[in-house]
């Protein structure tokens, strides 16, 4: 399998050169090949890291080689003992002023690099994160470019141990990727292979902080995480496309007068589970587009040395990465369950989609840890309220906090819930009240840190509320723009309302507990939601067709565009290798003796 | 892989004969082998089906053969086109009075049997469900014992096509089971191979209903589903055992004065996610024990021709099957995520545990479809209130419906939530009020069926509320019994309170919306929950050690009893076949040409 992946990756690269694709086109092509490979890390992490943290002259050496694929890289940060806590990494890079080199070493078992994709077998080089020891002092963790395998025969260089870490979740899935383990035994590399944009070590062995602010590092994170949010929308739209199409094909129960049975998509329970997932796929697409804009905005500001929006942008992408990946993983699995029995077959496409997707909840920041960062940011925002500090971006609404703490929703009948202002105010009030309440509870504790530790989990709910507010508000903003296509805007309006009211129903407890809405209003919201589902139902198929996936790309017999599910599912069975023989291998050895009661005499 | 499974199954059987194990002991042994095999269906479904539906004299023919494993059976109900809707099955069994035979046939593509475990390769016989056509009339679906493969060479008998249906979710997982496809082309079987306990076809071709009531059929379902609930507790306790132990080994962040970092189990967010899962594993064990009792009770009543408790017992097991399997599947995946990166490795044991477990949400009744049955039963119960009809079992509390609709919880301070009466009343009030409210809403609709269809999904929430009430109340009942072991009862009391208050917090919206509790009381419940987590924390490891699983059975490097995670994870990597060679297969063909920029000239 791994060899086949190598073949595909090489083939893709060949096409990229041949067609002289631009960086963006090439990334599209890799997207459509749709199989994880070492090259993904090369492009997705290694190059952004060098771009973000390398010095100008260094970039000039490594980037062209990387772009031309004359070296293959991985991003080697996580170790056996440390993932989330990057500052706790144990690999050391000790500067030796005599030879002007760093000595890379793995002093403990837990310092072994563990997980980097592409590291196990393919990479020639890695950006390796290690603790800088200069002149006896520990200067914290930084990236180094290290050659791992020889250009001659691809064997590991002296002092380097490298291997694949073994089977992961799923069948094909992530196992096309050679996540690896790496150990150094005093390996020497030239000083200038340290990524020196933010701080430098001089020839004399002096550690110097450069005038480039550390925050630059956050720029790369914003970039990588916004691509993850965009991927969430892709993955969820694939899953809902399969489940929705199959729900229209599948009929079960309810046949009258010998007519056909009911399409399962017509059951309210099915709609109730499926439609929120469909609209979420749309919501994530729009928030993804907005994040892309945010990244550009932040980058431009960084270039103008304006760091004012960075903390908010960072919190916001961290939170949205967490929210979108968690819900998307759940959505894929829910779609699989909505296809019931046949969803459990690999040919439904859903099992592998789930398994390849789900680590997005873990890599680039464990989702819980990210929410804690958002929560810290929110607590800080609350503590600065009234201090005159400018509130930017998604926290701007906190400027009206007085109002939000007191306002009463003016929803009086179900249709009032269709008004964007009503929705927005309810979400803002809930988020603001939760933030303020928890900040207040924390302040009652002996120390802020203790309070934060004690109330950790309430704080996570607050962070989620804030992130949901962002998604809802960006969906509403999107609808304020001109949207081409006859009737499209009206449809999107329905989706937007479903998204908001679905969340409102799901988190009813929080809306009620904060007093953002009343019991009566909660019940009106549920009524309105039912009406909206009924409006969306006739267009369900059109809504998922609009994602415009080819059958080949979807890779699902259940999600076929033409709906010819059964005639295609049946012959698929015969591709199973077990069916190569009618009587299974092992019959004579194990089954027959059991049937003939001759087991006692058989050696197993 | 499949062959290896055959080997293990044969070996297990050999031990069973050699040691002369009883039926119960044998089932224990298969449990510990812990790999799915065709034999599971043989014992788990086939034999109960014959016991439940076969005639006495028939049982005498087939059961001894089956017990001795002189034939291997599968349970062939589901078809390509029909799973949930058993009455819609299309396979036909046409009675031919001339030859006193049934002719089994698969008239359509969708009538192909599809999914039965053990059917694909191993089974010699199957209980095949088919539509009886007798004298031109359709008498509905019934089971037939059909020989599928020859005793001589295991080849399919004439007119029979049988094969494996192909790859399923996961890597090893369920793929050790040969779920199969089966088609009949006018295959003749003797009349007496129809399972005739409930209805019979005479030699003359007359269809006769026997005096054994149809409800008997439900007895088998209650049996099979209660074993599924027991399994839910096993699976969830395995998962939480792994995640809890690893959470105590894993340290991340929070090191002070160069001391060790914080064990992640000490983070409130981790506790908040993990502890509810631990207590749920306990709760399901107790409700499982109670269901076992219920099955015995129902069986005894059936033998005495007392069917009065059957509908309630049936609804109750259906609901609990749905609730426990859905939450257990989610719990396993949550445990995997709580182990973050390393949880994604197969060596953590969690990926395969999930994948093997999750179809329990689908087989033996799709979980949503089951909840709808519960809901129908609840609506019926509500409609009969005041009619004088006796309320039995778990609906007995509805006898106090007047009170439950009006009562106000008397909780005034956080500790009041420790009182079983307070908890029970809140759960009873919520469930009763939801049932009554939805029954009322349905009655406003033009017809009951329409109302039911329209409000389907609210009704599902009502069913869940009822099932949670059952679990909570059985936990509380358990604690009223004497429990051996010093301090054990006190610990279980904490777990019981955590379980109840966790659910209360999670479904806060429903408790508030029904007015079962007030805002203030909801907030007190959350405060008390925090206190309970702190009390449970020091005993977390003891609580999972108490499940008493061996390392071998757990099959998880992260969940090792001795906590030696890293030294065992590291060498595991080297077992990966990719590591058999240092330079990967495919290097010369694909990687080297890419690096050397010679791709243009290479044929891929
Ligand atoms: C498929 C896959 C691909 C990967 N690819 C790469 C790669 O290319 N390069 C690379 O360097 N790494 C890679 N990784 C590693 C990944 O980045 C880490 O697994 C991730 O950062 C999470 O860290 P961890 O596993 O140490 O989790 P841990 O931090 O150990 O988390 C364990 C548990 O502790 C909790 N926790 C931790 N800290 C706190 C806290 N302060 N407060 C509360 N709770 C806390 C977490 O929420 C979690 O529940 C990959 C991982 C996977 C699964
Ligand atoms: C691993 C595995 C092992 C199995 N082993 C066996 C076996 O040994 N023998 C055997 O006979 N079968 C077996 N099965 C088949 C299994 O019993 C069926 O898949 C199961 O009964 C569900 O039926 P379905 O797949 O037809 O779902 P469907 O009924 O097609 O469900 C599709 C969707 O429609 C919804 N839906 C259906 N009806 C309604 C309704 N009335 N109202 C609202 N919503 C509805 C469902 O909730 C679901 O979301 C197995 C399946 C699996 C996955």
Automatic annotation (TrEMBL), chains A, B:
Name the catalytic site residues: 364
Which Pfam families does its entry note? ACOX, ACOX_C_alpha1, Acyl-CoA_dh_M, Acyl-CoA_ox_N
Q: Where in the cell is it found?
A: Peroxisome
Major subcellular location class? other
Q: Which cofactor does it need?
A: FAD
Domain annotation Acyl-CoA oxidase C-alpha1: ranges: 218-379
| Entry's Gene Ontology cellular component terms | peroxisome
Q: Where is the Acyl-coenzyme A oxidase N-terminal domain?
A: 2-72
User: What keywords are assigned to this protein?
Assistant: FAD, Fatty acid metabolism, Flavoprotein, Lipid metabolism, Oxidoreductase, Peroxisome
Give the similarity note: Belongs to the acyl-CoA oxidase family.
Protein name in the entry: Acyl-coenzyme A oxidase
